[in-house]
Write a structure and sequence with these properties.
alpha/beta
Length: 319
């Protein structure tokens, strides 16, 4: 459905997007992640024909964005980070205005409008001016304008920013429902949203694509770098523990503030073959120390994101 090849966008000497390539199949739900200034929004604006690229190629459903801008815009519903609303218009007037802009057939406008009111939960505010609505309802109106022409592709840029927890849950449920019918790209900083609704994740950093895979695949890429929290009874020798584990290259032992009196706590990390827990258990037993707790931390999508966007190297599983 979307094919991006060697896409680059320059602003003077700065590369906002730096030679990235990826493909998105019909029906996929994609999480597009990156820190502020990474190039996410610029990439989405190029795909949606809001701005041209400096070089590279982008095709949407086989159409080139440079040559078929109007055709592609008809296929895409776009909710930018700043919701494009007219506060002086009431909700119904605004959605009818969008229908006219989209050149929708008059015969089907009212039935489609009724469907959007129901799907987006706008029945209670349909006659209110947009300027009177809460942030949550404005986001609902923004979603309605993005999908009112029944696009094949839906691109949402930070759709839950500024919402309270209840509104986030409501909008997230709506996004999940839309994702069952559309090819969907979700740009967000809220990683729990991505894990909840996305089947695949793209991570961009400094304009470059650094990861591409399912959340499970990306987490699996960090499994070799184990992270263990260990609590021992006071009397253990951290120097001896470090020396015992030093035979494993890349393993580090860091002492943490003890949460309980008469205890020692450590964070042990490293990338080794096999399970570090067995080595730690044997070291503790041989030294005659008392092991109170040992817990292996499960890698999360947040761990993956931090690892790849805080100076980490390019992911091995980039496809």
């Amino acid at each position: 459905m979307i094919n991006v090849e060697n896409l680059t966008k320059r602003y003077g000497d700065q590369r906002a997007v730096d030679n990235i390539s990826f493909s998105i199949e019909t029906g996929e739900i994609i999480g597009f992640l990156g820190p502020n200034g990474a190039g996410k929004t610029t990439t989405m604006k190029i795909i949606t024909c809001f701005m041209p690229a400096s070089s590279g190629r982008v095709e949407v459903d086989g159409l080139d964005v440079f040559d078929h801008s109007l055709e592609i815009r008809r296929k895409i519903g776009y909710l930018p980070e700043t919701t494009p609303l007219y506060p002086e218009m009431n909700v119904r007037e605004y959605l009818r205005f969008v229908q006219a802009l989209r050149s929708m057939p008059r015969s089907g406008r009212e039935s489609r409008l009724a469907d959007m009111i129901d799907l987006c939960g706008l029945g209670e505010v349909i006659h209110k001016d947009i300027g009177e609505l809460s942030k949550g309802y404005r986001q609902r109106v923004g979603l309605a304008q993005a999908i009112i022409h029944d696009p094949e592709i839906l691109i949402l840029d930070e759709p839950t920013i500024g919402l309270d927890p209840n509104q986030v849950v409501e909008i997230r449920s709506l996004i999940a429902a839309l994702g069952r019918e559309k090819t969907l790209i979700l740009c967000t900083h809220i990683l729990s949203e991505v894990e909840a609704v996305c089947s695949r994740v793209l991570i961009i950093n400094h304009g470059q694509l650094v990861a591409d895979g399912s959340p499970d695949t990306l987490r699996a890429g960090l499994e070799g770098r184990q992270r263990l929290l260990v609590r021992l009874k006071a009397g253990a020798d951290i120097g001896q523990l470090r020396q015992t584990l030093a035979v494993h290259e890349g393993v580090s032992v860091e002492e943490l503030p003890a949460a309980e009196p008469e205890t020692l706590e450590f964070e042990i990390t490293g990338g080794v073959n096999g399970d570090l827990r067995e080595n730690i258990f044997r070291a503790v037993a041989d030294a005659g120390w008392v092991l109170l707790e040992m817990r292996r931390e499960v890698q999360s999508l947040e761990d993956v994101f931090r690892d790849l966007t805080q100076g980490g190297e390019r992911a091995d599983n980039v496809q």
